[in-house]
Amino acid sequence: MPSVARSVSAASLLAACAALLLGVGAAGPRAASAGADLIDGVPLAGAISTTDWRPNAPTEVAAGDIPPEYLELYIHFGAQMGVDWRFLAAIGGQESDHGRHPAAGRVNRSGCVGPMQLGIGGQCGDFVGEFGRDGNGDGLVDPLEPADAIATAAFGLRAGKGTPPPGGSFEEHRRAACRYYGACASPAVDYADEVMQRALSYGFPAQG
């Protein structure tokens, strides 16, 4: 896919993200759940095992590849949900080129839609119904809206797909990618390996 012109330079985006890190604390919309967010029975605020954890700053590759508004959302909701943002962003890149792929705007034949290709029924299951989160505060969960989609994906990865908290192993993250896709690979794509290669380019630690 042709690259999309950026109005923000990599250097200025890195600076903006550094500032953000310091402050981290049907296809249509659905009403947001009022229930408490729990991960392994623990309130979300206590779900990150390392209390002084802070996200890593984006690499130049990440800053050059990810649209600025998406990068901020990955960092923000990764920190909020206890998911390494580089892994979360790798899934967003794999699924829709961070919302740039034209197919992201329509429900596919398996029942997935949006920038994170979230299931709303059919073979994809109802990921939104199970894990939907209102990322932009409008009281709705819309899998086509980037903040809602990324918040929902992050929560579902952590609460339902076995994604470890930041600092978890490469292999644990790879297995979570398999669960998110429904398989580690298919005839069309080596999904988990491609996600992890993308995550590595965004600064995720190599398998060691």
List the keywords:
208 residues, mainly alpha, Lysozyme, two-stranded antiparallel sheet, two-stranded antiparallel ribbon, 8 helices, 6 strands, disordered N terminus
Strand order across the largest sheet = 1-6
Secondary structure class reads: mainly alpha
CATH architecture: Orthogonal Bundle
Ranges with pLDDT <50 over ≥5 residues?
A: 1-25, 45-53
- Secondary-structure element order, N to C: HEEEHHHEEHEHHH
**Overall form:** globular
Write down the domain tally.
Answer: 1
> What is the total tally of β strands?
6
Our estimate of the beta-strand percent is 5-15%
N-to-C span: 32 Å
Major sheet: size, sense and barrel closure? Answer: 2 strands, antiparallel
Tell me the CATH topology: Lysozyme
Mean pLDDT: 83
Q: Number of helix segments?
A: 8
Percent of residues in helices comes to 40-55%
The top-level CATH class is Mainly Alpha
* Rg over CA atoms: 16 Å
Structure description:
- 42% of the residues are buried.
- Strands 1-6 form a two-stranded antiparallel ribbon. Strands 2-3 form a two-stranded antiparallel sheet. It has a two-stranded antiparallel ribbon with strand order 4-5.
- Helix 3 packs across helix 4, helix 3 packs parallel to helix 6 and helix 4 packs across helix 8.
- With 208 residues, the protein is mostly helical.
- It is globular, with a radius of gyration of 16 Å.
- The protein contains 8 helices and 6 strands; from the N terminus they run αβββαααββαβααα.
- The chain has one domain: Lysozyme.
